[in-house]
Structures are given as C-alpha cells and as structure tokens.
Design a protein that fits this description.
- With 265 residues, the chain is an alpha/beta fold.
- Helix content is 36%, strand content 23%.
- A hairpin with a 2-residue loop joins strand 2 (11-18) and strand 3.
- The longest helix is centred in the last third of the chain and has 28 residues, at 189-216.
- The radius of gyration is 19 Å and the shape is globular.
C-alpha cells in the first residue's frame, strides 16, 4: 500500500491507498518541533491500528509520497524515510520531481508543493480549465488551463486566520466555533461573527472564482471549480460556483506523482 503525507501549516493529513482507493486517513496537528524519531513513533501508532498493516513500522507499506509547506517538517520526514523505511521507495515533492503539469509562473520554485499537487489531481480527475479552491490555513485559488498547465492563482487569509484575528483585535470579540449560523442577520455577537465568516468567505469565493474563470476561458461556465481542504464544508452550501468537492484531492495528487516518478528511481 502507498502512504501519502500532506504537511500543511496547521494540519498534516495522511492517507493510505490500496491501488487507487483510499482505505484509511488521519489528520494530525503540524508541529515543526517534532523530530524524525517522534514522527516515526506517531506513524507507528496510527498505522498500527489498521488491520491490513503489520505490527512493525513499515509492514505493508510499499511506497511513500510526501509534500510539505513547512521545510523543517519536510527535513524530518526525509530522515524518517531514510531511517525507518529505507527499503521503501519514497517520493518527496520538490523541484525536479516529475508532476506532468507545466508551471507557467514567474518563479515556479516559489509555488507551494501542495498547490501543484492539487493541480495534478484536478487535471487527472476533471481536466481543464479548472480552478482549485483549497480551504486551509490560507484560502488558495489555483488556475489550470485547458491544456493542463498551472498558470497561477490567488492567496487569501484562511477562515481560521480570520477568526483568530477577530478574537485578538476586537476588544469585545472572542474566538468562536466556525459553524453556520441560524441566519445571515445574527441575533447575538457569536452568530454575527459566524455569519461574517461563513457568508463572507462564500462571497469571496464566488467573486474571486468568477474573475478567474473569465480570465481562464471565453466561456466561464466550462471551467470546473473544485473545493478541497478541511474547512471546505463550511462554505460548500453557500457558494454558487463550486462544482465538485474532493476532500482528498491533495492525497490523490500525491498518489499520481508517486506513480509518475517511482519507475524512474
């Protein structure tokens, strides 16, 4: 089986693939202070609970694919693959790794690995033109051309960042649960903040995607809009432009990149 690891700024998502099917997944906090040994113990604890894997670390794992937006964690995971999975082929997404998606930006090396991986999966699953909206620490919008090229995107503050900022900067406000309120017009402070977050972000998505789609295609309706990320469900029901919801888009992209590189190793 293939172990995929997507390290984000706030959370790390792990997925276990049996062929093309994701058979297990986990979400843990991203901690840049964890050492390779601590990460290995964490992986052993998670995967030891799966019935298709053995009791020893690495039993049943045939390959590993990793992308990370936190360089220190990527460094430690590289050490994990070397020390604890030495006989298992591993693909770490970084410059030089074959993705199959041309990157047409001013400086391709500065584009986050997760954004490229999302584009890989979007092209494979839905074709182009497409826009991927990833609701993570930041809300990112990534554009894929009709020819399957990554051509750029938009980065905006994420939902949790906005909630934290309101709680810190608002003298009479506090951090709240991110949830859909009873109505747009809040009857109390918490509901008013929830409405601002949920409907405000839905409006942001509709506005940004609409502008991007008009640049991507002469017919904006032919652009497929895919939502992913842990907080996507908060906005799905309120946005009018999202066509598809694929929570495991990045993990699927990692599987595809692994398959495109493992034969070259």
């Amino acid at each position: 089986m293939l172990l995929t690891i997507d390290v984000g700024n706030t959370h790390t998502v792990l997925g276990l693939f049996d062929g093309e099917d994701i058979v297990e997944h986990w979400r843990i906090s991203t901690d840049a202070r964890r050492t390779a040994d601590e990460l290995a113990v964490l992986l052993q604890g998670l995967m030891g609970m799966h019935p298709l894997l053995g009791d020893e670390l690495g039993d049943g794992i045939d390959g590993i694919a990793i992308c990370a937006t936190v360089p220190s964690v990527l460094h430690e995971l590289r050490e994990v693959t070397r020390r604890y999975y030495g006989d298992v082929p591993a693909v770490l997404v970084e410059p030089g790794v074959k993705t199959g998606v041309p990157i047409l930006t001013d400086n391709p090396k500065e584009v986050g690995a997760d954004r490229i991986i999302n584009a890989v999966a979007a092209v494979e699953l839905y074709g182009g033109p497409a826009i991927v909206v990833d609701f993570g620490t930041a809300t990112t919008f990534d554009a894929v051309s009709a020819r399957g090229e990554y051509i750029g995107g938009v980065i905006a503050p994420g939902i949790e960042i906005s909630v934290d900022a309101l709680g810190v900067k608002g003298a009479q406000l506090r951090k709240i649960e991110v949830a859909r309120p009873r109505s747009v017009i809040g009857k109390n402070t918490v509901e008013a903040m929830q409405a601002g977050i949920v409907y405000g972000f839905a409006g942001q998505v509709d506005g940004v995607v609409g502008r991007m789609a008009r640049e991507l295609s002469d017919d904006p309706d032919e652009v497929t809009v895919i939502a992913t990320g842990g907080l996507a469900p908060m906005v799905l029901g309120e946005s009018s432009v999202i066509d598809e919801h694929e929570p495991w888009l990045t993990l699927i992209g990692l599987r595809l990149v692994y398959e495109r590189n493992v034969s070259r190793m």
